[in-house]
Amino acid sequence: MGRLDGKVALITGAGGGMGKVAAERFAEEGAAVAVVDVAEHPEVVDGITAAGGRAITVAADVRSFDAVQAAVDATVSAFGTLDVLYNNAGVSLGDDDDVTSTPEATWELTMDVNVKGLWLCCKAAMPALLESGNASIINVASFVAHLGAATPQLAYTTSKGAVLSMTREIAVIYARQGVRANALCPGPVLTPLLAKYLSDEEKRQRRLVHIPMGRFGTSEEMVNGALFLASDESSFMTGQSLLIDGGITAAYTTPE
Predict the structure, then answer these.
(1) What is the band of 191 on the pLDDT scale with cuts at 50, 70, 90?
(2) Catalytic position from the list 86, 156, 197, 252
(3) Burial 77-105 (b: 16+ CB within 10 A, else e)
(4) Which of 35, 54, 85, 103 is buried deepest, with most CB atoms within 10 A?
(5) Which of 68, 75, 89 is nearest to 33 (CA)?
(6) Helix (H) or strand (E) holding 160
(7) What is the band of 112 on the pLDDT scale with cuts at 50, 70, 90?
């Protein structure tokens, strides 16, 4: 018996990276999955169905309410309900820097995707989640929402702080209506988002030295946390921030 048997999950940013891992894992645990990304990803669906799971793929830019509404409608049409909204889509742009250096366009795009996009997904999905009566929203934030980043990325860090605040607000509003909302806060994970900052060994070590466990996390380790938040195992948990960061936020000084 899977931990998500009978549940339907919509996952944004599910075409690759952590989102793809989540789609595959959720399907393995019994969920029917809507693989949502800016383009359709039939190869992800094919992999899930080949393994005996159920999935559809929908193209949607999370910055467009009409697009995410269509994705929600397609999910409910295909599977009859929506129980889990996994807001994984996000951007971290290469020229995101400090207060004076970050371009205005970079700030705006980061906020549009990471904050407005997350809100629009919740806005579109909420009626279906309320209809479910036992729903979970998982908003991907970051450990940098809890402390300053080792290298400046002002727009990204600010956007993830906003995700935490939005998650708490949603959790309180809907706590008695059968919808839980929690934030998943990964530490550094070797995904394409992080790889751009690790172009040489010096940059790699600059980040590793801050991780007490001495290594980067894996997508699978982060998805384990999301699986817990999606399942009924976390039924008394809402408005919280689940940090999976190798000890970064617990460390005052860093071992050499």
Answers:
(1) low
(2) 156
(3) eebebbbbbbbbbbbbbeebbeeeebeee
(4) 35
(5) 75
(6) helix 154-174
(7) very high
- Regarding pTM above 0.85, the answer is yes
Locate the domains of the chain by residue range.
8-236
Cα angle, residue 14 at apex, residues 104 and 37 outer, rounded to 5°:
55
255 CB-contact burial (10 Å; exposed 0-12 / middle 13-18 / buried 19+): exposed
The one-letter code for the residue type at 93 is: L
Q: Catalytic annotation on 86?
A: no
Q: Which long-range contacts (CB under 8 A, 24 or more apart) does 53-59 make?
A: 53/27, 53/28, 54/27, 54/79, 55/23, 55/27, 58/34
Phi/psi of residue 27, each to 5°?
Answer: -65, -40
The residue to which tokens 């559809």 are assigned: 56
Q: By 3-state DSSP, what share of the chain in percent is helix, strand and coil, each rounded to 5?
A: 45, 15, 40
